[in-house]
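User: I've been trying to design a sequence by hand for this structure and keep getting stuck. Would you show me what you'd pick, starting by listing the structure so we're on the same page?

Assistant: Good idea, let's start from the same input. This is the structure you sent:
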């Protein structure tokens, strides 16, 4: 065999091995929410909180955080996961629930449009919906919930962690 060709092949094999290893490392990192090396993505970049978690609403307490930007702004998946709900769901309006590798669920609702379907795998930072005011909402916003073992928990620790990380374009 042509020795020049052989050295090219050797170089190619080395590069391929390095590339595969990097791919493996980055994939395994995106498997775990608690892994600090997994940057995550803010669900609605540039938004401000218009209603905090656990806010008293008379008959019930607020189960999530309301984030506001403009109508029809893109909403992003905060981590990799699988869509377990994407439909109109009572007062939530158009609603998406994503289940992540560690069992944590994130919920995005009042959307004007959902881009993903139940059963679909989504990537961290993937555009999944647009902000709207479907369901019980008085203004266009994102109602964002984090659920652990099926129960809503305060999303602020997660949002604060995400807001310090790089935003996707
Ligand atoms: Zn809300």
């Amino acid at each position: 065999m042509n020795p020049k060709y052989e050295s090219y092949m050797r170089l190619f094999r080395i590069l391929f091995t390095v590339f595969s290893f990097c791919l493996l490392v980055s994939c395994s990192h995106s498997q775990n929410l608690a892994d600090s090396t997994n940057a995550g993505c803010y669900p609605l970049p540039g938004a401000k909180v218009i209603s905090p978690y656990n806010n008293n609403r008379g008959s019930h307490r607020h189960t999530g955080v309301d984030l506001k930007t403009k109508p029809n702004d893109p909403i992003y998946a905060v981590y990799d996961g699988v869509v377990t709900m994407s439909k109109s769901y009572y007062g939530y309006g158009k609603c998406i629930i994503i289940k992540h590798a560690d069992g944590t669920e994130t919920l995005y609702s009042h959307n004007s449009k959902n881009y993903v379907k139940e059963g679909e795998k989504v990537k961290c930072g993937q555009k999944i919906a647009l902000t709207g005011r479907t369901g019980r909402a008085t203004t266009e916003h994102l109602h964002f919930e984090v659920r652990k073992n099926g129960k809503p928990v305060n999303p602020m620790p997660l949002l604060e962690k995400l807001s310090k990380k790089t935003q996707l374009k």
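That's my pick for every position. To get oriented when you compare it with your attempt: The domain at 3-165 is CATH 2.70.70.10 (Glucose Permease (Domain IIA)). The pocket of zinc ion is lined by residues 51, 62, 64, 66, 143 (CB under 6 Å).
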